[in-house]
Write the structure tokens for this entry.
Amino acid sequence: MINWKKTMLIRYFGLTKIPMILFARPHVHTLDSHQCDIGIPLRRRTMNHLKSMYIGVLILGADLAAGLLAMDMISKSDRKLSLVFKDVQADFLKRVDGHARFICNDGPKIAELIQKVIETGERQDETLTILVTVPGTYGDEVLANISLTLSLKEKDQA
């Protein structure tokens, strides 16, 4: 089931800030304090010459799943925090040759990270894991594991 309110919010963000998001046409399935589940359809714009999902779109989906979860939790903290991803590591286990789902279940890790930033006032990092599946073809089988290091700090109050 698609959460259309959150999907329109993320597409507006793509329209105004990061056009690549809009290009991939993502949709939000789940967004709560524990999980973010993003879907990106496989179509001409998102596939490579082998008819599987282009690597840039796979990284974009992982960025959205982890980033949207972090942004949602930051907005609930009532603090102004700066969010950036420091690095990426990916294990591609099978070709993603269908409509992909990007699932980040690291909400509790993000909540702890936000708390550490508030307590210390310094930049803190945490590695988040995003699982990529293609439910229509492979069910719940994980086709890729993508790890992103989330780095948070309080924004300067200048």
User: Anything to note?
Assistant: The longest strand covers residues 142-154.
